[in-house]
Amino acid sequence: MTVQGTKIITHIKRIQWGRINMPGKRFFYVIFLFFTGITSIGQVFALDWEASIEGGEIYTDNVELSTDELAADEWITRVSPALELTHVGKRLDLSIDYALEALYYSDVSERNQVFNQLESLALYDLISDALRLRGEWSIGQFNVNPDLPLTSSNINLTGNRTDAITWAVGPEWEQRMGGFAEIDAYYLFGAINYDDVSVNNTGPALQDVETRRALFTLRSDSETVSTFSWELKYTNDQILYDLSSDVEIQAATALVGYQLGSDFRLTVLGGADSDYTNLADASLSENRWEVGMDAQFNNNVFTAAFGRRFFGNTYRFSWNRDQADRTFRVSYREDPSNTELLILQRAAPEEGIPTPPDAELGRPGSATRFIFKRADAGSQWRLFRSTVDINLFWENRENIPTQESIGDPAQVTGDEESYGARLDFRWELGTKTIVSFGGDWQRREVVRFDSAVNDQDRTDEFDLASISAGIDYTLGLKTSVSIYTSYLSRVGATSNISEYQQFMVDLRIKRIF
Fold it and tell me: How many Å from the N-terminal Cα to the C-terminal Cα in the chain?
């Protein structure tokens, strides 16, 4: 549906409303305003919009993910209105994807809560298409400690989830220079704000951070065919914690590429880095180099590189093969990072880092740093009216000891590791019915942050497994109903971390307006 109207410029404010408590009458009043407000929004923007509401009942036999002896079942009523807005104009592009999730617990009403999830982006042309003002804003819920009960939804009351509001705003410059070169630059000022300061007294306090992100790239024109290509690039990332020492990462590089034929290119990169292990030194004092290649033939795309940075050797590799009925992919990367930097890189204006299938090894708001190593492999088969996905991953975080200051965790020397596999199957049983199955297994080794003990370098190793099955049935063009069952377990902990298992049934109906 398209509604015509005038255009305005929006701005981003720092607010804290990822999770709110709300009685029933107030919530349904909010839903009423939510849908009736669409008309008012349409009068302000020339936009496309789609509104929906989803509701249902959920049963779980272990609502807090406790041990079998303490497990308690619960019925939860879930109501979730959602709204998607898009606007493409002469000067303003806008996208908003928002959902409100209200949970009502039958046994203990004090547990009732309302959550917000949001992904939004606004681009406003200041000077033609070259200089734009960029604003992005997201709200979500995340697990805090990987050594506590983990859940991918807000249903379970683990005490291990927090709200996070991430926003950034700043100018963005993209311009071609007469067919000779291209400029790509931005400066983004933002923040990551967490709702809770600690979780069950089992780890360091969650710290809000302010962020500064800068990039300037001058490269040869990408639309001009040439034997030689070149690129000059500067990046600066600052993570300014509330209490811990600030982190600043700089890099300045020059890259030269040589084209061997139409499908093969060699690259050589050299430059300077800041010392990520020394928080007191943000200068470009460390050398950096890398040699690599890019190749493409038939349905295969390869990239590979080997180099050296201040912390050791670096590797990058990827292979993608896309055929009519199947795809294959393999990738590996190794870089210094921290949890907040990974969050920001996934939302960067340039091509970001794909969100891994498990994002639970990171500790939001904790000023820990690590060498991030990640390997992925996957394949998809598109069969007759069905799809099969298989994904394998391995992740390792080589923790770098941090400087001691107020709010910092103790120095961590142990590495953390996670690896596993996932299988998904989707089958179009009929024109209105889709059947799906899924299962995954993960082995994790994590460092414990336990304020009750002096030994901060203890590790726990355990297995996470889940199985799910469901049916989606289309009642009409805008109405669907689904039912899902799932089983979740964690076993094999080497310390006193509680083990748990859960069986859940989720019945829901969705209506699109």
Answer: 9
Q: What is the pLDDT of residues 26-83, one digit of tens each?
A: 555 555 555 555 555 555 557 889 999 999 999 999 999 998 888 999 999 999 999 9
CA distance 279 to 281: 6
At residue 200, φ and ψ (nearest 5 deg) are 55, 25
CA 11 to chain centre: 23
Instruction: Indicate whether this model's pTM tops 0.85.
Output: no
Can you tell me whether residue 367 is helix, strand or coil? coil
Q: Are 115 and 154 in contact (CB under 8 A)?
A: yes
The 10s digit of each residue's pLDDT in 264-279 is 999 999 999 998 888 7
Tokens linked to 345: 């890189």
- Give strand ranges (E) for 61-200: 74-88, 92-105, 113-127, 131-143, 161-177, 181-194
Query: DSSP 3-state assignment of 446?
Result: strand
**Residues facing residue 138 across a β-bridge:** 119, 166
Q: Is the pLDDT of residue 195 over 50?
A: yes
- CA–CA gap between residue 310 and residue 249 (Å, rounded): 12
Contact between 263 and 236 under an 8 Å Cβ cutoff? The reply is no
